[in-house]
Amino acid sequence: MMALSSGHRAALDSLVRRFERELFNYLKRYLGDAALADDVFQNTFLQVYLKRDTFDASRRFRPWLYAVATRQAVDALRRGGRRTHVRLEQPEGQAVAESVTSCEADPLDGVVAGESRQRVREAVDGLPNHLRQVVLLAYFQGLKYRDVADALGIPIGTVKSRLFSAIQLLQERWTGAVGVDSGT
Question: 81-107 as b/e, with b when 16 or more CB fall inside 10 Å?
């Protein structure tokens, strides 16, 4: 980051290569649109370069990068009036999707699993933005709670509280949807 603060293009290129896949996948999941994610990804690194002097070198870079990216994504959604979508069929989302699928080889299980994945997608998609942000950063990007807090500029206790609220809300939506389908 020191080379970037002095304006070296090679340092910026190195950071883009290092975080390209991880950050782009986060933005694609957060925004639900690969083209918009690409635009936001580019804007993120433009802002990183322009604001390089504001980075506190005593802090970790990754949470700061995610903070910049999340702000850029929120701004893009506001400008475009778009709704976010979470795509759990991505390889990074398999752990969540697999938790609602059956291991049986029965063809009916595939249909049920597909419906379950759709319900999970809709439930996560329907979370309020402040809850969806912490879910995506903590569970899909694997950031530690401290890094999520740094990225969003909130206390770590707020991260934990939002994750707890998100999980409760997802559970309520899941059991409500399952209860309706099973006739209860």
Answer: eeebebebeeebbeebbeeebeeeeee
**Quick one: fold of 1-85?**
Rna Polymerase Sigma Factor; Chain: A (1.10.1740)
Q: Contact, 64 vs 55, CB < 8 A?
A: yes
pLDDT greater than 90 at residue 79: no
CATH of 108-184, one of 3.40.50.10860, 1.10.3720.10, 3.40.50.10240, 1.10.10.10: 1.10.10.10
Q: How much is the average pLDDT of 172-178? A: 70
Residue 82 DSSP label = P
Q: Per-residue pLDDT averaged across 120-124, rounded?
A: 70
